[in-house]
């Protein structure tokens, strides 16, 4: 099972924000630079995360992005399901559909395996991802050296 790059960079944004205190905000550009992701790709993922209620934009002179409280408690499996959509692990239809597509035991088994993969990620919350040793590294990203 391989995640799309889009899902991975959205998770990078979530992790970067998870180490911030409640009042400390970041801009999309700061997150993109810290996580080594093109700005336009990060902006698209952040817009999706806002739509999912995981991230919120706070306005004001020092405005920026923060995780919402429910976002911080979100289970990673639930988040990955939402980001990946209904993508299957194999492409059975399309321009050259597989003749077994309507009645394939392998397809069913792969769906079961995919669900087990997501379920195992449901044991981890977004907040858990920011614990040590990842947290200190996340905090150091995008900072000028002392
Ligand atoms: S063999 Fe089954 S899983 Fe593989 S492409 Fe065909 S329908 Fe899909």
TrEMBL record:
Domain of life: Bacteria
UniProt cross-references to Gene3D superfamilies, sorted A to Z: Winged helix-like DNA-binding domain superfamily/Winged helix DNA-binding domain (1.10.10.10)
GO cellular component term of the entry, any: cytosol
Alphabetized UniProt keyword annotations: DNA-binding
Pfam families (UniProt xref): Rrf2
Keyword presence, tRNA processing: no
InterPro entries: Tscrpt_reg_Rrf2, WH-like_DNA-bd_sf, WH_DNA-bd_sf
Cofactor: [2Fe-2S] cluster
Protein name: Rrf2 family transcriptional regulator
